[in-house]
Every structure is written in structure tokens, then in C-alpha cells.
Amino acid sequence: MISPTRIRKEKAFKFIATVATWTSVLILIVLLTHILSEGWRWLDWQFMDSFPSRFPEKAGLKAGIFGSIWLMALTASISIPIGVFAGLFLEEYGIKGIIGKIIEVNMANLAGVPSIVYGLLGLTVFVRYFGFDRSLLSGALTLSLLIMPVIVVATRESIRAVPNSIRFGAYAMGARKHHVVFGQVLPVALPGIMTGVILALSRAIGETAPLIIVGAVSYISFIPEGIMDEFTVMPLQIYNWAGRPQADFHQLAAAGIIVLVSVMLVMNFVAVLIRHKMQKRYRF
Amino acid sequence: MNIETVLSAKNVNIWYGEKHAIRNISLDIYKNHVTAIIGPSGCGKSTLLRSFNRMNDFVETLKQKGGIFFEGNNLLEADPIEVRTRIGMVFQRPNPFPKSIFNNITWGPKIHGYTGDLEQLVEESLKGAALWDEVKDRLNDSALELSGGQQQRLCIARTIAMKPEIILMDEPCSALDPKSTIRVEDLITDLKKDYTIIIVTHNMQQASRVSDYTAFFYEGKMVEFGQTDKIFTAPKEKKTEDYITGRFG
To answer: The pTM is what?
Structure first.
């Protein structure tokens, strides 16, 4: 016989878990409907294709969109190779002993450092010391620092998940280490690494604080043409609009949020897709 | 039959940290014959097998002394890559690469700079492993879609593709069902025409079915070595008799 208390406990637990799930879903729904209802009517081609303006009906997100694209492309091309190779090195070649442990702990800590700290670092090092000024390059380098630990950790975890039996199978055929790492381990780990990279980039695309510090400007009426140009990004434009007194600008901010959230949703969806596909392909 | 020694272990000692796993074993392996190493769990049979192609290099706490001579050279002091190229290994659990069947076969030869006809190599190797007829129409399918028995034969095929002199098998049937086991055993008998095979097994019937020579290991020592039919019908040592009659192990 199962005692009635155990059944009651089971039911209570299920109830709490259900409530917890639906609370978060509900908050998301409320947030999204609020933003949609505020920003929907501003969302048109004119909004996407205009530069910022003093007049809400003429203002648009064009500078932010292009700035974000530039910044993400630059950030990705800096952070992905360095992050993935660092993760690969740490996991497959590794630094043994106490130094290795210190690096590991530090990497985990770096992933949790507030983004504003990276902004200050970027300001000191890239903007001032290297003299890159308030450029896309400074912003991209700063964001790269910010998401690199995330990419490194994701890479290491995906590589660690590759079964050792594959490595041994490859070694038993007289493979050298680089054959094993690049021919066997990396292809299997790649979907996991890509998932991590996309999630890291979707964090970077929403970052505002470090970019304010390194001097992204919110009033920009041109599309950047090179990595040394000044720039703005979507979240910064939204931040700027939301800070203005007029209600119309608040609604513009909501429209901007819709665009930004859509981009992030697509990125996360792609990440889920890759992970799903990977699970189908490699089942051990 | 003409008997030629191809691999010769001399006074091999292996330690895992403090544990003395292989105690002064000397063993000759004969060319184009199947040698089975039997014994209860923990007797060191797999440990010695892994020394034959330097897979023990990956165990950090492991120390090995003595000599394993292959064509006159001590392979414990040779380049492990070279050793593994010429002495292949099939593992306990089938471990095909997560690639297509075709690429499973070609991966090894390719990294060693094979320039011959890949399709011919794949066909030959799969035929050699008695797998060709089952997979010839789906060479580009993932190897992971094969059954366990097919996967193990694929692992044998990819080992054959390297054209090794010796194939080591570490309990190759322990993860397989009885039907697949018989197919792999038949295959082993076929393979000895071209290769020398050393098989570790805890299954005595298997050893008696497939092997020409049998070595019985117990607690890191080699208790007895001889022709398989003699070991199984007239063992010299009491321990061997007790083991093969199922009194322990």
C-alpha cells in the first residue's frame, strides 16, 4: 500500500512545478503582448528604413539595424575562432596541474562578470590605450571579450561529451593527435559548439551597457562603412527612445524591442534546431 | 603446419600505480594463427593486449617493463603511431566513427596518405569482414544506423583496410547477441589466412571454437600456454583445469 501522505506529497509537488512553469510563461506573454500592442502600429518599412529623428513619425531603426549587423559580424569573426580554439586547446591538449585549474576556475568566473566591467575594460584598453576610439572595432573587441568565456565553456562541454571510444578507435588506427581532434572529435562536437556560439551571440546582440561605455552613439544618421566608423546598435537606440519624455518615442522603443526580440528568437530557434538535429544524428 | 613467431613478449611487467597487473609474462604469438587469452576478470588479459599496440599509453598511472618484440624491434620503445598502424585493434563495444559506412573504412588509410582506389578498398575491406552484401547499397548511410553486430564487423573492416599484420580483439563479442557472435567468430576463422589474430575473451567456448593457441592468465601470471585442443582436453595445470571446467572465474 502507498500511504496517502505520499500521494498527497506527489500531488503537491506536481502542483508547485506546474505553477512555476506557467508563471514564467505568463510573464513572458504579458510582456510580449504589452510590447506588441504598444509598438505594433509603428512597425512598418518606414521604421526599418529611417535614421533617428527628432520627430517620432520620421524616426527609424536603420542605423541600429546596420550597426548591430556590423557589430555582430565583427564580434563573431573575432570571438568564434579564438573562443573555439581556446576551448579545443584546453580540453584536448590542456594545461595540467594547478595552472590548468586556475584557468578553468577563472574562465567560469569570467562568464559571470557583469557586462559593464567589460565595458570599462574596453574603454581603457581599446578606446584609449590602443586608440581605436569610439569605433565598431572597439565595440566588437569588447563584446568579444564578453562572450568569449561563454564560447570557451560551450566548446569544452561539447568536446567533453564526445565519447572516448571514438578517440580510442581513431588512435588504434595509428592516427596522430591532430587527426583525432580535427577529423573525429571536432565534427562530432561542432553542432554543440555552434549552439553555444549562437546563444553567446544572441546575448551579445542584446548588450547595451558595455557599448554605452565604449562610446557607441545613439544619434547616427549614416550606415557604418568600415570597422573604424562610429556606430549605434538596436538596444542602444531603444534605450535612447525609452529615455525620452514623449509617449510616441516610448512606442517607438516598443517597436524596436519587437525587432530585436524577433532577431533573438530566430537565433535561439536556430540553436534549438541544430541541437535537435545533432541528437538525432549522434546517439550512442 | 609451418609455424613462425610474429610477436614475442619477453618478461613483460605492467603496473597500474602500485598494482602489479602483469607479472613477468613471456608469450610467443604465431603468424596466421588465432591466439586466445582467457582468464577470469581482472587477470590482466586485456591489459597485456593493449600493450601490444600501445593503447596503454593513454593510462596515466601505468608503467610497463620488458620487451614486446615485433620483427626484431621492441615495440614498447617504438613510435606508437607506427605500432598502431601495423597492429590493429577491435574493441569490446563496437565504436564506429559517427560518419558514413564508406568514410569509416577510408578514414584510416586516408590519414596515412593512401592514394589508391578508395571504392575498391572499401569493397575489399567490407568483403573481408563479411559485411559487403548487407551494406553495399547504402555505403553513404551513417554507420550508427547499423545493428550492433554489423557495427562490430564494420570496425573489423576498417581495421582490415589498414592492412595490419596483427589484429587484436578485446572481447569483440561481449556486446553482441548470439547470432552476431557466431558471424564474428566465423569471420575470425576466415581472417587468419591473411592476418595474425590475438583475441581476449572471457568466453571459454569461444576460445575453444576460434583459437589455435590458448594462454590462460590468472592474477597477472600466465599459468599455461599451448595448443587450444590440448589446453581444453588435457591441461597440465590444476588451475587451468579448474577454470575451464567452471570451478571458478
So the answer is: 0.82
Q: What is the ipTM of this complex?
A: 0.91
Q: Is A91 in contact with A163 (CB distance < 8 Å)?
A: no
Q: What is the CA radius of gyration of chain A?
A: 23
Assess whether pLDDT exceeds 90 at residue A279: no
CB contact under 8 A, B107 and A163: no
Which of chain B's residues have a Cβ under 8 Å away from the Cβ of A170? 97, 107
In chain A, residues with a C-beta closer than 8 Å to the C-beta of B89 are: 172
What is residue A49's DSSP assignment?
T
Categorize the per-residue pLDDT at A280 as very low, low, confident or very high, splitting at 50, 70 and 90: low
CB distance B67 to B14 below 8 Å: no
Choosing among B91, B107, B152, which should be mutated to test the A contact, i.e. which has the most A CBs within 10 A? B107
Spatial separation of the C-alpha atoms in residues A141 and B160, rounded to whole Å: 50
Check residue B41 and report its DSSP letter: T
The predicted-structure confidence for B233-242, as pLDDT tens digits, reads as follows: 999 999 999 9
- Model confidence at B1: pLDDT above 60: no
Q: What is the DSSP string of A88-104?
A: HIIIII---HHHHHHHH
| DSSP structural state of residue A205 | T
Quickly count: other Cβ atoms within 10 Å of residue B164's Cβ: 22
Smallest CA–CA distance from A186 into chain B, residue:
B98
